[in-house]
Amino acid sequence: MINVKQKLGQIVGMAFCAVSGSAYAASEGEAAGLPQLDISTWPNQLLWLVVTFAVGYLLVARVIAPRIGSVLDQRERTIYQDIQSAKEAESEAAAMQADYEASLEEARNKAAEAANKAMTEAKKAAEEAEAELSAKLAKKTKSAEAKLAKMRDEALASINDVATEVTQDTVKAVTGLKISKADATKSVNKLAKIVAGQEA
What we know:
mainly alpha
């Protein structure tokens, strides 16, 4: 604020000095008044006004305006190219997104198909393994039953033989009589039938 006041004071002082100098010059006998208001100098002033205006016009029209126009055209072309590039990039991005979604959907379909195929194959393999295992178990069960039946028959046969021998020995020990093996076998078989009938 102080600097502005100082500058304003300096300007007023200079103006005062200029006015004082003009007044002093007038008092010395020089022509008073502004030179541009002197009619005798108007033709010269008009000439230089036209020349200056023409030079300024030519300078603006031939040098400054074309440069400004070229800058504006270049700016407009750059903006247009940028807009076109943005549109192309947007189109490419949309196409890439569509391709990505299509690829993703195809991958999902393939994965689902592969999973279904694997599940079907696993189910089929499990059924085949179960059937094979069932067949093996049935075969082993049948073989075991046959072995058990054979062992039972052998055990029963040996039991009958043992019972026949025991019967012979018991009768001989108790009565002192010796009975034949056939009679002892008949007695054992008869006793076995009676016992079986009672169990039934």
